[in-house]
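WARN no homologs supplied; continuing
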Amino acid sequence: MFYTYILYSKDRNKYYVGSTSDLQNRLKKHNTNHSGFTGHTGDWYIVWFETFDNLRDARLKEKQIKNWKSRVMIEKLISSAES
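OK structure emitted
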């Protein structure tokens, strides 16, 4: 099982989009003190995810979301999943 996911940080008021085969372990890594985009905050949490049978499809979904370059579109995706 593979996942495309969106994280949110209240401190930064930012979203992060990624893909992985181990969602919980990846979240733990995002919340560690490291030098990447998600580092130094430690308050990231999952607001949306979708499952896939293979990594290729998960990465394609990740790329699609990132290509939107739109906070509004990301928030629509999140809210549609909550409905």
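Strands lie at 2-9, 14-20, 45-52.
OK
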